[in-house]
Predict the structure.
Amino acid sequence: MDMQVNIAGVRWKNPVTVASGTFGSGEEYSEFVELGKLGAVTTKGVANIPWPGNPTPRVAEVYGGMMNAIGLQNPGIDLFCKRDIPFLRKYDTKIIVNVCGKSVEDYCEVVQRLAGEDVDMLEINISCPNVKEGGIAFGQNPKAAEEITKAVKKYAKQPVIMKLSPNVTSIAEMARAVEAGGADAVSLINTLTGMKIDIHRRSFALANKTGGVSGPVIHPIAVRMVYETAQAVQIPIIGMGGIACADDAIEMILAGASAVSVGTANFYRPSAALEIVEGIRGYMEKYGYEKVKDMVGLVK
């Protein structure tokens, strides 16, 4: 039995990674998780300069999950290259760097800087607000999504994964747009925009008023969007959104994902991703699948 998967020419030892923003850049989890047993580690978003993030409070618990408005706080690309890449390179796992920015130029600067670094893939977070277009996210406009994909592909030396926002009318349209722009793969879904009000303080639970909802509560929506995307594009899909156990991950694979990413579950069960690897292995043994790809998109 072979657990390996090929994502845009990069061979992972198994189909499980961790979602950007839920795992730091690996170091803080390394004492709890054997990083070398993951198919890949996806880093927290990194920008061309350090970002302070949003004011606190930035995290709130909601029914079936959590909500965050961290604001992509990060140390900037220079410190990231000096500190985080060398740390991750000590482990036998693929490195996926999540890239964020506020303009096309911001993204391209980071991608260009990473061209000479020893990382395996780039994940472009297009849920960021486009400051030059009045704050609408790059990932909410098909034309903008296609253009930013084309722009980063000019500089990228590694395969490019475009991370899609679910806060759109048609996820399939967005996926087709980034595929047309040259994306090598897509990952979805990012968080859904939500709001929580503290009825006793009569104020917003988050200083930002709104935040990204994640966790088991969004899983059925994520499965539907992965399925719709699989019908729309030919490039590989990394499925995420509320994956808390192997059953959730297998559901994503059957819907059309070639690999999966574990996010919120890392916060309350750091062992979740490795348990999911073993759970997928057990499922393959039980039902006689030789390769993960034999299960991808089986449910039509």
Notes: The mean pLDDT is 96. The two ends are 24 Å apart (CA to CA).
